[in-house]
Amino acid sequence: MEYNIEDDYKLGIQYLQKNIPDVVDAYHELTGLCFEEGQISKKHKELMALGISLSHRDENCVRYHVTEALHKGASEQEIWETVNVAIAMSGGMIVSQSAHWVKDTINGHQVKQ
């Protein structure tokens, strides 16, 4: 069986929900509020989150925010421009991550459509 980081993450969240439900619920409420439409669109918030996720080397969040940005109408070019800004801010580690995590997630999204 092939390892799937998204499934592993979901199982981990279920485990946390069982053991610390108040904290997990509060976290989900907070992030939900932070990503609501406002002066900055949901799409642009996802792109910002992607750049931050790349800078923090958080594979789960990179894959999640690429997918969410695509679902919220971001083009591949907008995603790659976000990668460009993250590279400018965080250097070579972003090149390495983007070569795998962003590319693979975009390609996986295209296969599902």
From TrEMBL:
Please name the SUPFAM superfamilies in this protein's record. Answer: AhpD-like
Q: Name one Pfam family in it.
A: CMD
Q: Which residues form the Carboxymuconolactone decarboxylase-like domain?
A: 21-104
The lineage's top-level taxon is Bacteria
Gene3D superfamilies in alphabetical order:
AhpD-like (1.20.1290.10)
Q: Note the PANTHER family from the entry.
A: ALKYL HYDROPEROXIDE REDUCTASE AHPD, BLR3452 PROTEIN
Return the protein name.
AhpD family alkylhydroperoxidase
Q: Which species is this UniProt entry from?
A: Ammoniphilus resinae
